[in-house]
Amino acid sequence: MTFDNNLSVTKTKNLYNNDLQKKFFLHGKTILEIKFERNFPVWFHGLIAEFGLRRVSVSKICRGLERLNLVDNEE
């Protein structure tokens, strides 16, 4: 389980460049990523209900590519 926030993306051919221009995306959002086998854990359904959360699938790589204008957003 991981929590991701302040996500950023950049376009570069050199990962060791310290002068990268980061573009942030999903501002103000925190993504909870859970890895599981086969089925979504039953215990987590209870947490979603208890705290009034929404279960939404998000592709961080797709959102990053959209932020760089490398793909069209079809939403």
What's the layout of helices and strands?
Elements: E1 2-4, E2 8-9, E3 23-24, E4 31-33, H1 42-50, H2 60-67
Antiparallel strand pairs: 1-4, 2-3
Give a verbal description of the structure.
By secondary structure, the chain is of the alpha+beta class. It has helices spanning 42-50, 60-67; strands spanning 2-4, 8-9, 23-24, 31-33. The chain has a two-stranded antiparallel ribbon with strand order 1-4. It is elongated.
What distance lies between the first and last C-alpha atoms, to the nearest angstrom? 27 Å
Rounded mean pLDDT score: 84
Radius of gyration: 16 Å
Biggest sheet, spatial arrangement of strands: 1-4
How many strands, which pairing sense, and closed or not: the largest β-sheet? 2 strands, antiparallel
- Helix and strand composition category: alpha+beta
Q: Which of globular, elongated, flat, extended, rod-shaped describes the shape?
A: elongated
**Count of DSSP H/I helices:** 2
Helical percentage: 10-25%
Spell out the helices and strands N to C. Answer: EEEEHH
Tally of extended strands? 4
Share of β-strand residues:
5-15%
The parts where pLDDT drops under 50 for at least 5 residues are none
